Amino acid sequence: MSDLGEKCGVFGVYGKGLDVARISFFGLFALQHRGQESSGIAASDGERIACHKGMGLVSQVFAEEDILRLTGHIAIGHNRYSTAGGSHVDHAQPTIVNNWGIALAHNGNIPSTAVLEEFLHGKNIETSKLSDSRMIAEAIGVLVKEGASLEEAIKKAYPLMTGAFSILIMSKDRMIAIRDACGIRPLSIATINGGFIFSSETCAFQTIGAEFMRDVQPGEMVVIDANGLRSEQLAKPNPKMDIFEFVYFARPDSHLLGKSVYSVRRNFGVQLAKEYPLRADVIIPVPETAIPVAIGYANESGIPLEMGLTKNRYIHRTFIEPEQHIRDQGVKAKLTPIAEVIKSKRVAVIDDSIVRGTTSRKIVEMLFGAGATEVHFLVSSPPIMFPDFYGIDTPKQKNLLASDKSIPEMKAFLGATSLQFLSYQGMIKATGIPEDQFSTSCFTGEYPIDIKERMKEIVAKKVCYTPFRENSSQ
Q1: Same domain, residue pair 48 and 190
Q2: Fewer Cβ within 10 Å of end Cβ, the chain: N or C?
Q3: Domain count across the chain
Q4: What's the pLDDT at 91?
């Protein structure tokens, strides 16, 4: 229930004899959690690129006749999350340039577009109304117009992309994947019936029956065409995947950096129980991300786990504006407490993160309203003190609850009996991956890719993490 959203998910298919548009539809369906604002698919038969995109969920955007029109052996798809740039069909991807000669789908964010803008202005391309994704597409497109091959154009444009990106680019006869040198956002490759699949997460491979092959490496360009798959390293890799993929964004059935997301989240819960043993009657997760965390905490602590909050699974994006009374209900329209589980109990509620704190505050209020005698709020990540610039739609720093409040002050704001966060060291330990493989900028304010002029938006904070405890006896 975090007040966070990721910019998007990308998916691509290359293969003769494959129904690439239909496979892309189900791939995007599996990546729906990465974006609910808009969806789109572009496909090529080797002669022409066709595209269909629109506002809403995958199931709302596409009908059977739309899929039937997207013929060919190459396709890329995109789900977009609503960001500060606003909601409009013009922002839907794939982005098409060069008179329908190139399509591009982007996951990530370019915090400073100054270099891109300077390049495009030199080519007499106006940038004032262009998104970062559109600027990247235009830069590649203009280089192709000047005579470069698609691969050459991408290599020349690569240094202009000063930010986080996992990108799929498609021409009429080939598909190319690139990642920034830090690999902030995930991107993996699979095989299917002699063809190839790209996906932001491995969970989509299981949906369509593809077999995981490997990750696209940080700084790598992977090209697939009639000659098969080949790759080239465009930048020296400096792996720094965003740890928030483990904390919140990725589906639990995905694998990141060779680790099960479910298992890592369960480990978060085990570590949280070691650091903060509680006297409570029941453990309740905030669905859905915190469920594995709560399982880990319950198993380690011996406190029973109950699903004391029910989520309305059909609360997704809708174009029907809620009636005012329903709008005023806010989180109550999404979550309902089960009084029989909560009444007269000391409740420990577990969530993945606290951003603004408004949702968490309402959850505490609901639990007390359902009869809880105590509400202990446990969080499976450290306090978020800094905004993200790499593709997560976070509030400005001043709107982050932890940016100007201590943990006791946050507890008072939430109205909870107690409030505890998983320590930074405990979070890293639970992943089983070395700290230097991650970007942890939301927690530390250390940005592995230079955010340039955006750094002036950051107010330095003294980062004080809670003590790391190896066992509950400490």
Answers
A1: yes
A2: C
A3: 2
A4: 80
Model confidence pLDDT, tens digit, residues 395-438: 799 999 999 999 999 999 999 999 999 999 999 999 999 999 99
Please tell me whether residues 63 and 196 are part of one structural domain: yes
Are 152 and 78 found together in one domain?
A: yes
What is the reported pTM? Answer: 0.92
CATH code of the domain covering residue 382: 3.40.50.2020
Q: Are 189 and 213 in contact (CB under 8 A)?
A: yes
In this prediction, residue 315 carries a pLDDT of 58
The 10 Å CB-count burial string (b at 16+, else e) for 277-310 is bbebbbbbbbbebbbbbbbbbbebbebebbebbe
Q: Give the C-alpha separation, 443 to 454, whole Å.
A: 17
Going by C-beta distance under 8 Å and a sequence separation of 6 or more, which residues neighbour residue 373? 344, 345, 346
> For residue 472, what pLDDT is reported?
39
| Cβ pair 36, 316 in contact under 8 A | yes
Residues 120 and 233 in one domain: yes
Yes or no: say if 210 and 190 are a contact pair by the CB < 8 Å rule: yes
Is the bond leading into 118 cis (omega within 30 degrees of zero)?
A: no
Parent domain of 268? 263-312+320-432
| pLDDT of residue 130 exceeding 80 | yes
Residue 111 CA to residue 388 CA, distance in Å, equals 9
What is the phi/psi pair of residue 44, to 5°? -135, 140
- Asked whether 202 and 260 are in contact (CB, 8 A), the reply is no
The pLDDT confidence band at residue 260, using thresholds 50, 70 and 90, is: very high
Same domain for 289 and 202?
no
Residues 261 and 456 sit within 8 Å (Cβ to Cβ): no
Q: What amino acid positions are annotated as catalytic residues? A: 8
SS3 393: coil
Residue 356, domain member (yes or no) = yes
- Same domain for 224 and 294? no
- The answer to whether residues 386 and 104 touch, using CB atoms and an 8 Å cutoff, is no
Find the helix or strand (DSSP H, E) in which 75 lies: strand 74-80
Residues 105 and 231 in one domain: yes
Distance CA 40, CA 76 (A): 8
Strand 164-170 and strand 175-179: pairing? antiparallel
CA distances, 216 to each of 182, 231, 256, 409 (Å): 12, 9, 12, 43
Q: How far apart are CA 220 and CA 213, in angstroms?
A: 15
Do 267 and 178 share a structural domain? no
